[in-house]
Specification:
Elements: H1 8-16, E1 22-23, H2 34-38, H3 41-48, H4 61-68, E2 79-83, H5 84-96, E3 102-107, H6 112-119, E4 123-130, E5 136-137, H7 139-145, E6 150-156, H8 168-181, E7 184-188, E8 212-217, E9 229-233, H9 236-249, H10 255-264, H11 267-294, E10 299-301, E11 309-314, H12 320-331, E12 333-334, E13 336-337, E14 346-350, H13 355-372
Parallel strand pairs: 1-12, 3-4, 3-6, 6-7, 7-8
Antiparallel strand pairs: 2-9, 4-5, 8-9, 10-11, 11-14, 13-14
Length: 373
């Protein structure tokens, strides 16, 4: 246990996100209220009459049908409901790999799987998205790091923290490399639906290769992080094995989460929630972009193609964790240091927020940067 690797991103966020004046670390769009989600009073009354027992432990059938409908050819038995995408990633990794197996992880990334791999005794390798390529995949490195021993390639698409959407050729290259060695692909697709420049959904890895597990949740694109509702989509026999792990970790998601998630993913509600999320993203990014430009050569950013976050580079002689800690202490503004994603001299900034809140937080951050110069 002394060698256990803590999850630095979650530790720092839990410590500060509710204690600062301006939290610019929100990784999804601004959360929706329960009143907004339910809408009609009759619907609210129906939920008030819900008996708070156990739901189906693998997820309500209605919910799993809604999730399956988002993945070509999937059925309810391809789906397992989980406590957020975090549990889906955790049990998928446990299901597919054993101690000593080799895993290759995309970086930068939400480094849950990277830390989890260490704690499970896996052999870790990284392949990088290249900032000079607009955060595109370094194809040569991908080919180099994947070996005949690789059992799993973990990607995040759209990417957290860069907002990069894998191109068709990038997806084909990842699949081809995995197929060469018989590796699984674990694709965290929780930002599908949060596209900034198009209403078309990001392509899923599901259905493009036979050894794919997709994980996702309602936390980012849908503005429902507090439900802690996620899922994994996989071949039925893999879902069954993942369910064995789910029995040990959580048993089930909650009854209310199942009912509210089923409501959210119904055709009319889903379209409304995705439209709301994209409005926050499309209204917020110009505010961030204008602010970055006003900082001169100190800041630069590759415009994210999706998600409510941007990975901003700064040209200052200060480590990203030190930068974030001083910004908290001196200005009560919280951004995520690039160290949490494996890349220094960057910070992740949320822009899927109410405009006045975003502008005020960025203004204070601008004051801080001016004082560092």
């Amino acid at each position: 246990m002394n060698n256990f690797q803590q999850f630095d991103l979650e530790r720092i966020m839990n410590k500060w996100e509710n204690r600062v004046d301006f939290n610019l670390t929100e990784s999804g769009v601004h959360p929706i209220t329960l009143r907004e989600l339910l809408g009609e009073r009759a619907l609210a009354d129906e939920f008030l009459d819900t008996r708070l027992g156990y739901p189906e432990c693998n997820g309500a059938t209605e919910l799993r049908n809604h999730v399956a409908a988002m993945y070509p050819g999937a059925r309810a038995d391809h789906v397992l409901a989980t406590v957020g995408c975090a549990e889906a990633n955790f049990i998928a990794t446990q299901t597919l790999l054993g101690q000593g197996d080799e895993i290759v992880v995309m970086v930068p990334n939400y480094l849950q799987i990277w830390g989890l791999a260490h704690n499970l005794g896996l052999r870790r390798k990284a392949f990088h998205l290249n900032e000079s390529l607009g955060w595109g995949v370094d194809m040569a490195e991908l080919q180099e790091v994947v070996s005949p021993k690789t059992k799993l390639i973990a990607v995040c698409n759209p990417n957290n923290p860069t907002g990069h959407i894998l191109t068709g050729p990038e997806m084909k290259a990842i699949i081809a490399v995995a197929d060469q060695v018989g590796a699984w692909i674990l694709s965290d697709e929780t930002y599908r639906g949060a596209e900034r420049l198009t209403d078309a959904m990001t392509e899923t890895f599901w259905g493009k290769y036979d050894k794919v597990v997709v994980t996702a949740s309602l936390s980012k694109s849908y503005g429902l992080p507090g439900l802690r509702m996620g899922w994994l989509v996989a071949p039925p026999e893999t879902v069954e094995q993942a369910w064995w792990r789910h029995d040990y970790t959580a048993i089930s998601t909650t009854m209310l989460a199942n009912k509210l998630a089923s409501l959210a993913l119904g055709s009319q509600s889903r379209a409304r929630l995705l439209r709301r999320g994209r409005e926050f993203i499309r209204n917020g990014y110009p505010v961030l972009d204008d602010w970055v430009n006003k900082q001169g050569k100190v800041l630069s950013v590759v415009p994210p193609q999706a998600a409510a976050i941007a990975f901003v580079r700064y040209a200052l002689n200060i480590n990203s964790t030190a930068f974030a800690e001083r910004l908290i202490q001196e200005k009560s503004v919280f951004v995520v240091p690039g160290d949490c994603f494996g890349i220094d001299h960057h910070v992740r900034i949320s822009f899927g927020l109410p405009r006045d809140y975003l502008e005020a937080g960025l203004s204070r951050m601008g004051e801080f940067i001016a004082e560092l110069l």
